[in-house]
Amino acid sequence: MNVRLSEMNLPRFPLLSDQEMTDLLARAQKDDKQARERLVNCNLRLVFNLVQRFANRGYEIEDLFQIGTIGLIKAIDKFDTSYNVKFSTYAVPMIVGEIRRFLRDDNPVKVSRSLKETAYKVNKCRDTLTKELGREPRINEIAEILEIEVEDIVTALEAVQTPTSIHETLYQDDGDPIYILDQLTNENEEDPQWFDKLALKEVLNKLPIKEKEVLVLRFFQDKTQTEVAETVGLSQVQVSRIERQALRRIKSLMGQEPNIS
Fold it and tell me: How many CB atoms lie within 10 A of CB 214?
């Protein structure tokens, strides 16, 4: 999403000349707060332009802008005029680096660098062996070449896997998606009996036989849609459709939705 500078209500300050920049940097590094503030304000446009590169990453532009500003402040503190480069040339990688560091570290799943490196080596070796052997290599073949224990390879590959939502669609046909959640069973021995809690037993008896059978298998016997499909002799897509129809009918019978045929 392209956000205009004006939409963020940022103050507008004139661009500084090279001499002004040099003077302000010298003063700021001597703990002159006014000089530091002016340097920051006059370089906000630079931060904003760099932040635009990271749009559509699931973060608010304003939040990334604040992180980029931290990078700008670090650049002000560490810049040395003896570098013989413009301040902006030095500041850009500092600002971008700060934003990238935030995006990396904000990931809910933290993976060590060593595991990432191992996974990278494994994937690279796998690609090479696939071309050489004309097939997918076995883990022990990769382990032998890289001189890494099989257990370490498995650990590294599992660590870098992206977490998957249980609501992610596995298959969809005619508008009836099958989610990962539909494939999960409840290993808890205690029956949650959520139908009882919602007073649905009476409503269950009013359903067509096929719909009642599917719901009993799914929620009372805790079977997956695949297992239900095998039991009733239907496809998983058909079971998914019947299940959703039955749940809509239950809501209708309980007065939560308009009546359905």
Answer: 27
**Residue indicated by tokens 């001189």:** 147
Q: Give the tens place of pLDDT for each residue, 36-52.
A: 899 998 888 889 888 88
**What are the residues whose beta carbons fall under 8 Å from the beta carbon of 240, sequence distance 6 or more?**
176, 177, 178, 182, 225
The reply to whether 235 and 146 lie within a common domain is no
Q: Is 151 in the same domain as 205?
A: no
With beta carbons less than 8 A apart as the criterion, state whether 260 and 252 touch.
yes
Do 117 and 65 reside in the same domain of the chain?
A: no
Each residue's pLDDT tens digit, 110-153: 566 777 788 888 888 988 888 888 888 888 889 899 998 888 88
Give the structural domain span for 85: 5-105
Verify that 39 and 86 share a domain, yes or no: yes
The reply to whether 235 and 143 lie within a common domain is no
Is residue 59 domain-resident?
Answer: yes
What average pLDDT does range 85-113 have in this prediction?
Answer: 78
Percent of the chain at pLDDT exceeding 90: 5
What CATH number should be reported for the domain holding residue 203?
1.10.10.10
Question: Is residue 260 included in any domain, yes or no?
Answer: no
88's CB contacts (< 8 A; 6+ apart) are 43, 46
Of residues 51 and 81, more confidently modeled: 51
Distance CA 241, CA 211 (A): 10
Measure Cα distances from 141 to 122, 132, 157, 258 in Å: 11, 12, 15, 61
